[in-house]
Structures are given as structure tokens and as C-alpha cells.
Amino acid sequence: MRGVRRAARRAQRSDAEVRSSATGHPRRGGSLGALRGLRSWLAGPGFGNSAPSKEANTEAGRAELLERVLRDLEVHNAVLVSPSLSGRYALPFLIQGHHQLRGFVPIAPASTQNYTQEQFWAVKLTKRGAMASEGLEGEHPSVTLFRRYLRIRTVQPEPDYGAAVAFLEERAHQLGLGCQKVEVAPGYVVTILTWPGTNPRLSSLILNSHTDVVPVFKEHWSHDPFEAFKDAEGYIYARGAQDMKCVSIQYLEAVRRLKAEGRHFPRTIHMTFVPDEEVGGHKGMELFVQRPEFRALKAGFALDEGLANPTDAFTVFYSERSPWWVRITSTGNPGHGSRFIEDTAAEKLHKVVSSILTFREKERQRLQSNPHLKAGAVTSVNLTKLEGGVAYNVVPATMSASFDFRVAPDVELKAFEEQLQGWCQAAGDGVTFDFAQKWTESRVTSTDDSDPWWAAFSGACKDMNLTLEPEIFPAATDSRYLRAVGVPALGFSPMNLTPVLLHDHDERLHEAVFLRGVDIYTRLLPALASGLAGPPRWPAKALAPGGAH
């Protein structure tokens, strides 16, 4: 065991010869950065009479040790060379982590008596004898699958949901998962892929993701946003790369790995792929949680989307701000544009707009003056639309201004609505407001160590040496509908050291970050799907139809 650690440290300190997967030419590099994205050879040393350790006690521990060596060296597509007769370390890693390997070379005839034929069948070999799965030459098969999903044009306002559903049905068949389609509105289908647990009395684990993506302006992109172009550094450019097709494939690939290992868990795992999230979820999750098909899932806990984090930490979201879309309408005296008309709609609307923007500035300063506050902890507001008038020389009788409020979870919503009313009354007679959207079910998922779901989630992350930063999501996701019906939900997209580029031009994700996310979910799911994570219950409450308004 000490030999592996010494070898890893030596590899970090010394020059390492690597062979480029693109050119095949040997290169010399003295840093971990030189190894990233290159096909490498990693020779595992003998362990001799090393003292017993926790890692050596189990197959999973030995496989995790080699996985950690690869991760610490930032090596991908490695070829594992094993001189061992017992295969005590190499074979568990080959069976459990073979998707991280480009090849396996057993120098000695290792014993295979502890493994089934089916387990070895899951490891595919190339004609040259090196392990490989379905995928492009030199590319990790999980990345190939990710890029394929990104090419499906589920872009608003006319998403190709049919192609996405067909893709998911194909994956369900290949993985041996149950597949259910629920049409919550004409043309809007929720696809559910199910891996049954061994104890149907326990509540289930929901892995939620949305299939639609936001519009693009192709002229501002370096590459076609639906080509899923991968550059020489390993960055994949595509709409949905961060939001949130990466997470969808990470769910699927983690489940595939666990099934290939022959794993089974007490809790049933449901992967839900929902439409319409990017335009509010009103024809997606909002309707789905009202249906008997959702209640039949017996959901106990859910994971949903989060955000990238440019630091080494991973952000996890336990609540989110309430979206209020408010239109202020002002009426006043009309007249000719050449006259000084008194009590006009514009004058009164100006007073309301000024009051709201003054409030906005106070919240902005509160956020900037407190380094411990995050964006989700304050209420934001932006003026998004101004309407009114028919001609340059006519003073309009009616004008309106529309605002996007994101109300922090600790704000008393009734009092905040009264404040809105007060701003309108102070502007004068004939000023009213109405809601295009008004979310009133602000819920918080516990992040207390005494909570079994949080303990399972954070404990697994701690075991992986992940630093978590719990926050309130600054915008809105489908998690709000799940929390509103009593299902605790965390928003988590495992993308650290990555700029936040959702909805942006040149949205992209590095393949190494994506693959690490698959590794993370492969470790998270066993912790959450065990019988120890969370109480054996599921919520009975449901929102009234249209409960978001």
C-alpha cells in the first residue's frame, strides 16, 4: 500500500512519458497538467509485505485506491499493467472501474475464481487486446454518449422532445431499466427510467433532469451549439453542456456502472426526464407532481440541477428564491404631446419604478457589503419590460412596467406583497399590479447533520474529499415543485473549477469534469439508495392545480 502512495508521489515529482491519443507521438512533461487528457501507462507496483490497511480489506477499497491514484495524477484513458498472480488489486479495478481505462495488460495469469463470467463480459476488448467500450476512437464512451445527447435539438421554443424520448427509451433497453412515459400535457412527456430496489416498502430516490434547453444566438458562438464540438483541450461546446444534459448522462452512466458491477440497493431509483423546465415547468414538473403516476413513485428524496463552481468546491442548493413576475399598470390623463399634462400615467409609473429600483439598490449593497452572503440569500429585481403609447405626439392614458423579482426564502411573502401595494398607492390613484407568476411555496431542504438524507449525501461527498458549499439557488428549478409536495431535494451539478456558463454564448464543459461527475454519482447513489438514507416514507401532500400562481 505504501508502495502505491510512493509511486504516485514519484510520478507527481518526476517527468512522465505519455503518448498523445491524437498523434501517437511520445511527449515529456513535468507537471500534472501535461498528463490531462492524454492516454498514459500506469504500472502498479508490487505490494510485498505492506502493513494491512483499511483500503486493502475490501475489493471496493482496493479499486478505490487505484481510482484515487488516477484521479490525483489527473490521468485519463490509462492502460493498467498488472504483473500480479493474484490480481488482488488489478482485477477489482478492472471489474468496477474499467470505464476509466483504455487498456488492461495482465503480464502474469491472474486468478479469476472470485468473479463471474457475466462480470468479465461487461468488459469489452478491442482486437488489440485492450479494453474498450462503445465510443469514438480514443474517446471515453461516456463522453461519446454525452455528445450524442447534446446533438438532440430540444431547444425552446420548439424542442424536439420526441427525439429525446426515443434516446432515453433506447438507453433504458440497453441498461435493462423499466421505462414509463407520462404525457402530462399534449406533446409534453415525462420519461421515467426505473431501477427497482430490493425493498419496495422504502421510499424511492428520484434523479431528476430536464430535457429542454434555452435558445441560442449562433452568431455569438465559436462552434455550432448543436454539434457538440470538442476542442483539442477537451472542452465540449454545446447548448445544454452545463444546463443540464451533463447531469442526465451522468445519472445514466453511474447507473450503468453500478449495474455492471452487479450492485443492488434497497431503494428503488427513478430517473425522471421532464420537459418545459426552461420556460417555467408549467407543462412539465408542475403538472407531473399532481398525477397518480408521480405518487406511485413513492419519492423520498430527489437530486436535481445545480450550478458550476469556478473554485475547487462544489455548490449544493437546498432551497431557491420564489419567482414573482409582476406587471405594474398606471393610468392617467391623456392629451396632446405639446402640452404639460398633469397626473399622467408616465409620472405615476415613474414613481413606482423609482421605489422598486431603490429597493433593488439596497439589496445589492447588502449583498456586496457582506462577504458571507450569496446571491440566493437576498431578493433581486430587474425591470424587464416597458409598454405604452401609440404615437410620438399622444400622451398615453395607460403605461406598464414589468419586473422579475426573485424573493429570498426568509422573506415573509404576505408582507412583501403589502410592500408592493404600498409602492403603488404612494404613486397615486390608478396604479395597480398583477402577477404573471407568483410562487408562494418556498421550502427549505434540511442541511442539518441530524437529517438522514443530508448525512448520507454529505457523508459520501466527504469520503470523496469534496468540499461542499450549501447555498440558496438564485433562480428557479423544478426542485421547487418537488419540495412543495414534501419531497426534500438538493440541486447538485458536480462541476467544480468551471465557470458558470449556463444560458451563455459558448456554453461548454471539459470532458474531464464531466467524467469526474460520473465518478461522483457512482459513489453518491449507493449512499442514497441504501436503506439507511432517509426514513421509509413518502409525501401524501399535493399542490392544488395551478398551485404556482
TrEMBL record:
Q: Where is the composition biased (Basic residues)?
A: 1-11
The record places domain Peptidase M20 dimerisation at: 319-427
InterPro entries registered for this protein in UniProt: AB_hydrolase_fold, Aminoacylase-1_M20A, ArgE/DapE_CS, Bact_exopeptidase_dim_dom, N-acyl_aa_amidohydrolase, Peptidase_M20, Peptidase_M20_dimer
Q: Name one GO biological process term.
A: amino acid metabolic process
**Residues annotated as the enzyme's active site:** D212, E277
Cellular location of this protein?
A: Cytoplasm
PROSITE patterns to which the protein is assigned, alphabetical: ARGE_DAPE_CPG2_2 (PS00759)
Q: How is the cofactor bound?
A: Binds 2 Zn(2+) ions per subunit.
The protein's UniProt keywords, in alphabetical order, are:
Cytoplasm, Hydrolase, Metal-binding, Zinc
Q: What is its EC number?
A: 3.5.1.14
Identify the residues that bind Zn(2+) 2. D243, E278, H503
Which cofactor is essential here? Answer: Zn(2+)
Instruction: Please name the Gene3D superfamilies in this protein's record.
Output: 1.10.150.900, 3.30.70.360, Zn peptidases (3.40.630.10)
The family line of this record is: Belongs to the peptidase M20A family.
Protein name per its UniProtKB record: N-acyl-aliphatic-L-amino acid amidohydrolase
- What organism is this sequence from? Canis lupus familiaris (Dog)
